[in-house]
Design goal:
103 residues, alpha+beta, Alpha-Beta Plaits, four-stranded antiparallel β-sheet, 4 strands, 37% helix, globular
Length: 103
Amino acid sequence: MTRIIVLVNLKPGKSRAEYEAWAASTDLPTVNALGSVDSFTLFESVGLFGGGTPPYDYIEIIDVNDMDAFGRDVATAEMTRIAGQFQGWADPVFILTRQVAQP
Protein backbone atom coordinates (compact mmCIF):
# COMPACT_ATOMS: atom_id res chain seq x y z
CA MET A 1 0.00 0.00 0.00
CA THR A 2 1.12 3.53 -0.75
CA ARG A 3 -0.22 6.39 1.32
CA ILE A 4 -0.40 9.73 -0.44
CA ILE A 5 -0.48 12.74 1.84
CA VAL A 6 -1.79 15.88 0.18
CA LEU A 7 -1.09 19.25 1.80
CA VAL A 8 -3.64 21.83 0.72
CA ASN A 9 -3.83 25.60 1.00
CA LEU A 10 -6.86 27.16 -0.62
CA LYS A 11 -6.22 29.84 -3.19
CA PRO A 12 -6.92 33.43 -2.12
CA GLY A 13 -10.61 34.26 -2.09
CA LYS A 14 -11.73 30.62 -1.96
CA SER A 15 -14.35 29.76 0.66
CA ARG A 16 -13.64 26.95 3.11
CA ALA A 17 -17.35 26.12 3.32
CA GLU A 18 -17.70 25.89 -0.47
CA TYR A 19 -14.51 23.82 -0.77
CA GLU A 20 -15.69 21.41 1.91
CA ALA A 21 -19.09 21.09 0.22
CA TRP A 22 -17.42 20.35 -3.13
CA ALA A 23 -15.06 17.84 -1.51
CA ALA A 24 -17.94 16.05 0.24
CA SER A 25 -20.21 15.95 -2.82
CA THR A 26 -17.68 15.39 -5.60
CA ASP A 27 -14.04 14.73 -4.74
CA LEU A 28 -14.32 12.28 -1.84
CA PRO A 29 -17.01 10.00 -3.32
CA THR A 30 -15.38 9.94 -6.75
CA VAL A 31 -11.90 9.08 -5.49
CA ASN A 32 -13.22 6.61 -2.91
CA ALA A 33 -15.03 4.79 -5.74
CA LEU A 34 -11.77 4.09 -7.59
CA GLY A 35 -10.75 0.44 -7.44
CA SER A 36 -7.15 1.41 -6.73
CA VAL A 37 -8.08 3.42 -3.62
CA ASP A 38 -8.76 1.79 -0.25
CA SER A 39 -9.54 5.05 1.52
CA PHE A 40 -9.58 8.79 0.89
CA THR A 41 -10.18 11.17 3.80
CA LEU A 42 -10.02 14.94 4.21
CA PHE A 43 -8.98 16.72 7.38
CA GLU A 44 -9.10 20.42 8.20
CA SER A 45 -6.00 21.71 9.98
CA VAL A 46 -7.24 23.39 13.16
CA GLY A 47 -4.02 24.14 15.02
CA LEU A 48 -0.56 22.95 15.97
CA PHE A 49 0.12 20.77 18.99
CA GLY A 50 1.50 23.19 21.54
CA GLY A 51 -0.14 26.16 19.85
CA GLY A 52 0.16 28.15 16.68
CA THR A 53 -1.31 28.38 13.23
CA PRO A 54 -0.93 25.35 10.95
CA PRO A 55 0.97 25.90 7.67
CA TYR A 56 -1.76 24.17 5.62
CA ASP A 57 -5.54 24.55 5.50
CA TYR A 58 -6.31 20.88 4.84
CA ILE A 59 -4.64 17.48 4.71
CA GLU A 60 -5.86 14.65 2.51
CA ILE A 61 -4.87 11.04 3.09
CA ILE A 62 -5.24 8.65 0.14
CA ASP A 63 -4.47 4.97 0.71
CA VAL A 64 -3.67 3.40 -2.66
CA ASN A 65 -3.61 -0.39 -3.05
CA ASP A 66 -2.04 -0.41 -6.54
CA MET A 67 -0.08 2.58 -7.86
CA ASP A 68 -0.12 1.33 -11.48
CA ALA A 69 -3.91 1.00 -11.36
CA PHE A 70 -4.14 4.38 -9.60
CA GLY A 71 -2.21 5.95 -12.46
CA ARG A 72 -4.74 4.52 -14.91
CA ASP A 73 -7.67 5.55 -12.71
CA VAL A 74 -6.60 9.18 -12.42
CA ALA A 75 -6.01 9.40 -16.19
CA THR A 76 -9.71 8.90 -16.98
CA ALA A 77 -11.77 11.79 -18.33
CA GLU A 78 -13.83 12.01 -15.13
CA MET A 79 -10.77 12.15 -12.87
CA THR A 80 -9.08 14.68 -15.17
CA ARG A 81 -12.17 16.86 -14.79
CA ILE A 82 -12.17 16.45 -10.98
CA ALA A 83 -8.43 17.21 -10.81
CA GLY A 84 -8.99 20.37 -12.85
CA GLN A 85 -11.67 21.48 -10.41
CA PHE A 86 -9.35 20.73 -7.49
CA GLN A 87 -6.60 22.85 -9.09
CA GLY A 88 -9.10 25.71 -9.15
CA TRP A 89 -9.41 25.47 -5.38
CA ALA A 90 -5.80 24.93 -4.35
CA ASP A 91 -2.15 24.38 -5.25
CA PRO A 92 -1.64 21.04 -3.48
CA VAL A 93 1.57 19.25 -2.53
CA PHE A 94 1.37 15.47 -3.09
CA ILE A 95 3.71 13.36 -0.95
CA LEU A 96 4.14 9.65 -1.67
CA THR A 97 5.01 7.62 1.42
CA ARG A 98 6.26 4.16 2.34
CA GLN A 99 5.55 2.71 5.77
CA VAL A 100 8.81 2.02 7.55
CA ALA A 101 7.65 0.17 10.67
CA GLN A 102 4.44 -1.06 12.17
CA PRO A 103 3.57 -0.80 15.86
